[in-house]
Amino acid sequence: MKSLSCIEQAALSVCRAYFDRQTQRVTASLGIEQEYFLVDRALFMARPDLVLTGRTVFGHSPAKGQQLEDHYFGSIPTRVQQFMLELESESLRLGIPVKTRHNEVAPAQFELAPLFEEVNLAIDHNQLLMDLMDKIAEKHDFKVLLHEKPFAGINGNGKHNNWSLITDSGRNLLAPSRKSRENLQFLVFFVNTIHAVYEHADLLRASIASAGNDHRLGANEAPPAIMSVFIGSQLTEVLNTLEKNAKIELDKGDNVYMKLGIDRIPPILMDNTDRNRTSPFAFTGNKFEFRAVGSSANCANPMIILNTIVADQLIQFQKRVDALINKGKKKELAIIEELRRSIKASKAIRFEGNGYGEDWVKEAKKRKLSNLKSTPEAYEAYLSDKTRKLFLRHNILNEVELVARQEIRIEKYIQKIQIESKVICDLAKNHVIPTAIKYQNRLIQSVSGLQKIDALQPSNTVLQSIKLLTEHIDSIEKLIRVVQKNSLKADKMDDSLQKAKFYKSDICNHLEAMRVHVDEIELMVDDEDWPLLKYRELLFMR
What we know:
- This protein is elongated.
- It starts with a helix and ends with a helix.
- It is about 55% helix and about 10% strand.
- By secondary structure, the chain is of the alpha+beta class.
- The longest helix is centred in the C-terminal third of the chain and has 53 residues, at about 400-450.
- Strands 1, 2, 3, 4, 5, 6, 7, 8 and 9 form a 9-stranded mixed beta sheet that branches.
């Protein structure tokens, strides 16, 4: 509520000072697209890892995944549609204005989107919606998976936050117009939002950090951990023109908007090329879409930060423009001069290319952009001097609240990894290794039987399988011992942030290595003997 008041006052002040004195209110608007997986409830209950962690800690990718995109472009399965219809009906009864339903890219993945609402109401409705989804799914013998990466190798779940600013007259401050004056107003809010993301990229990254999102970011159409802004080719050209036109004077009768090339910006600026799904923060025509938010997240935290950083940037912008006006510069020229300064200062955050490529990692480093790959790294931004000053300056969070929230987030991260590590070790010891040994003994008996027949010798394939199973089993047992040893070591640490970093560096990496061995064993063991339901059942059985 404090951040909403802050952004309203900052945006209202800019509107009334430079564009429309009749504006009485500016409201932050939000539309939350909710992605989720639906799996059969009986199949869900047969996977201990799904029940306890919300994701499959083991599982080899099936032959068919999302390559054909036939699920995305196909019709909604009948049973799923029945679930959706009841969910929409119950949502409307609770005042949640849901609008969109469709398949998502991954098999068994779907999306629900509401009408845009005031930010606070949109977040409350989304929290209520997630609870409602789970209850309705149970009635249809489904289980809703809201984990950010329930299945490896295919798309994860995001919660795209579509954010904009709306005046009391219905004017969207982030929508281009056919009118030159309104286009200058649009550029003020557009450029300042980009500049705010640039100045506080680490804090924005921290706002979406979680144990679940660590698995999702940077893979299968999820945005990377590096914060960047995608604006499309048309607006890139507009900003480049504005940046280059360094000397503009307003002689009598001159049109400054025409000289700058902003007299006519198309009212709908959806980029003609791909919308670039690899970007974590993208402009999509009349709003900014924060795509990096995880599907199970409470959107309050990223929205508190987005509201606050944009408000802070608008306040600084107005101070500098007013200073230029007080020195005798004409209002439009003062605004344009300050816009040009912001465009140059924040240019590094704008990126139109492939966010997945290694080239972008190198390029981002040259641009001095942070690459906070893990949650513990990202969380450090919460207690930086820059963050403390930002929240204290605007009376959003005090020192005690900042420290308390940080401790809670870190503790939650640690506990999530602790649970996952115990589940992984338990499944490996009590399910995978016994199954592998049983199958290996069967192969050994087969070899022994063949050797008793003088004319027959076991094939190299069988002998190699026995050897590989031994190697995988030994590797898993060693990794289990390392994880258990490091877990005991972590438990003795007093500093919670250092403990979280230790879990990430010295436990999570071993858990991932264990998965590689388990997934290889899955391909070797007889299908009837494998103790865990496979991806093909979970993703394709309706």
